[in-house]
Description:
Elements: H1 2-12, E1 16-20, E2 23-30, E3 35-39, H2 53-56, E4 61-65, H3 82-96, E5 101-106, H4 108-119, E6 124-130, H5 141-145, H6 151-158, H7 161-174, H8 183-194, H9 198-209, E7 212-213, E8 216-217, E9 233-238, H10 247-255, E10 260-264, H11 271-274, H12 276-288, H13 298-306, E11 317-319, E12 328-330
Parallel strand pairs: 3-4, 3-5, 5-6, 6-9, 9-10
Antiparallel strand pairs: 1-2, 2-4, 7-8, 11-12
Helix pairs in contact: 3-4, 6-9
Amino acid sequence: MKADSDRAQRRELQARLVDLFGTQIAVVEAGKGPVVLLVHGVAGSRHNWDAVIPQLAERFRVVALDLPGHGESEKPRGDYSLGAYATVLRDLLEVLGYRRATLVGHSLGGGIAMQFAYQFPDRCERLILVASGGLGREVNLLLRAATLPGSKWVLPVIANRRVRDGLLEIGRYLSWFPVRPSPALREFGRAYSSLADAGARGAFVDSLRSVIDLRGQRVSAMNRVHLAAHKPTLIVWGARDPFIPVSHALEASRRIPNSRLEIFERSSHFPQAEEPQRFAKVLTDFIMSTAPGPDFAKLDRATLRAGTKVATKPTRLVPARAPGDQAHRTSS
């Protein structure tokens, strides 16, 4: 029986290509229930969520995609801005027949999720930001360097297939030893490997340049995060994140009224891969314990007019509920 269940699960997680107005998008769907849309970050793919999709699918209709320019999706020359990506998500939900969804965005995907909630407020039920971009200026130097002029000519040298295959061979050799690479290192390796494809490299650089320059993140949602006041918002971060500092999570939690904050003390940039069971439980508990945001934009317009008059709450950390966990969360 278990073998049959595993085979059925694998079939359900197989991607299919969806024609999105002329662009082929790779999508997986699993489970039944409220729709949860998983959005990966730059140089990522739907596989960033592999460890948590089966658990989330026990309660929800999970949709994970490869953004244009990533994974198995088409990699056209075009617009790789946050607004363009948010429109892709809206169009995908429409084509798949889903009116609304809880948006879960990781890294750049968090910025895309916030842009989606801003552009299409009536379609966003909840907002879950995982190590999200767009919440402060600081960002890893490597990502800033990738936006420099000439990076599109440097990347083919350091990320070509020969170099990639050589590193994979080293990885296979190291697999003979009892020490295994961490889940975060595997995700970094997967992202690096994806850059061997010319189309993926172009999308990587164009996506980064739309939000980052040499001085850091140049696109910020902090002057608009109060608009999330009427949407249940969860912020998840790894305390050891080397790419985007955890201080961004604390400040965003302070500025978003009634938001929840979960810090994974043992995780870096990929808490969904590093602590998948806990990650799935945190998301499930949050979704099941909150009502969807209103299915209309009226409240969002009122909040927009209010601007910075919306009060922010102080950050107060208390221990998380799970026994033995080292994480903390803000009180609501």
